[in-house]
Amino acid sequence: MFENVPAYAGDPILSLNEDFQRDPRTNKVNLSIGVYFDDAGRLPVMSAVQAVEASLLQTVSPRSYLPMAGHTGYRDAAQALVFGANHDARVAGRIATLQTLGGSGALKVAADFLHRHLPASQIWISDPSWENHRVVFESAGITVNSYPYYDPDTGGLRFDAMRDAIDALPERSVVLLHACCHNPTGVDLDRSQWTELIPVLQRRKLIAFVDMAYQGFGDGLEEDAACVRQLADAGVPLIVASSFSKNFSLYGERCGALSVVCRDAEQAQRVLGQLTFAIRSNYSSPPTHGAKLVAGVLSDASLRAAWENELATMRQRIKAMRGKIHGGLAGHVDEVLRERYQSQVGMFTYTGLSEQQVDRLRDEHAIYLLRSGRMCVAGLNQQNVDYVASAIASVAANPGAKE
Ligand code: LMR
Asked: From the CB of 124, is ligand 1 less than 6 Å away?
């Protein structure tokens, strides 16, 4: 029956991470997947999460189904983190927020909702964008296009071209924007660019779909969410996919949220109902454990403070590693390329390394980056950063050679 099923080509991020796990070399360095490792190269279990986990273990509770929309305390905490506890739209009950299976689950649920209720709308994603954006939206039946974003010559943003392209979109188009720590480039809009873009979205009657997978990894929890709040303040129709994978280090628990900001509370109830239907038709209802961990931390003032401190330490460590590799590459790579390690923000740097150079880093030095040249800077640490810098210097000095 299945003889015509073709082999899966694999995913450019997750399959590479699996290749890394299988690599027997002891000097290997994983800079591929967007996962934060600490300075000892370990995946952190945050202390506030450990405290809630320990308290959950005190009473083994029955495992009922959660409501389709998810854990109530989690939904409220996730919404407050994204929009701010006292945001007008939140106080007015105008935001429909649901628990989802990670940020990817939020994208999929929203994609199904959009396909069903705005079937003529197409989506525009940045060029480039996270590899899975196109896959998720196309799989839901939505046509995916792109708008100009990254400038490979400068390592910065093509803001004018981006704004002009968005200014020419048909009404009711969906524009996917990254709130902070753009994946894969590490290049974000600054405050004045958001301020310039928002009236364009309004004038053209577009829907902003913000993906915020890295809140807290850029400039801070509030700063990273500022554009979301600005969009909501301006009354732009707004969808937000958010995630606790990175900022709670809870990747495998699949803790995400989807929020849709509506005109009024009655509309929000209808939208919530249809999003709930999208969840029911995909996986029925979400799991409990991760939601309890997140809600437990965010509802307790001292655990929340501990979490915020630990997150700040993670953010600072990434910045320190950026400085360190930037220093280590001095004199070894072109200055325009070297500056990117400092100027780009969050977990990723778009190194400008060619596919061939990336292959050589993997084959000759056991260092894994995406073939697009994306490096997860959060995989660098005091023990491996000099080794990585010297390996990059060697492939940059001799771009064609196979040693
Ligand atoms: C990444 O971009 O590496 C992460 O978001 C992990 C993933 O699922 O692709």
From this structure: no
DSSP 114-129: HHHH-TT--EEEEES-
Give yes or no for residue 212 CB within 6 A of ligand 1. Answer: no
Tens-digit pLDDT profile for residues 287-307: 999 999 999 999 999 999 999
Question: For residue 213, which atom of ligand 1 is closest to its CA?
Answer: 5
Active site residues: 130, 211, 246
Q: For the residues 272-284, what does the mean pLDDT come to?
A: 97
The finding on whether 250 has its CB within 6 A of some atom of ligand 1 is no
Residue 4: is its pLDDT beyond 70? yes
- Please choose, from the candidates 144, 143, 135, 152, the residue with its C-alpha nearest in 3D space to the C-alpha of residue 13: 135
Q: What is the pTM of this model?
A: 0.96
Check: CB of residue 314 under 8 Å from CB of residue 217.
yes
Whether pLDDT at 15 is above 50: yes
Which amino acid would we find at residue 316?
Q
DSSP at 40:
T
Nearest atom, ligand 1, residue 132 CA = 9
CB of residue 132 inside a 6 A radius of ligand 1:
yes
- Which numbered atom of ligand 1 lies nearest the CA of 13? 9
Select from 296, 287, 245 the least CA-distant residue to 50: 296
Q: Is the bond into 287 cis (omega within 30 degrees of 0)?
A: no
Whole-number Å distance, alpha carbon 13 to ligand 1 midpoint, is 6
- What is the C-alpha radius of gyration for the chain, rounded to an integer number of angstroms? 21
Using DSSP's 3-state secondary structure scheme, residue 162 falls into: helix
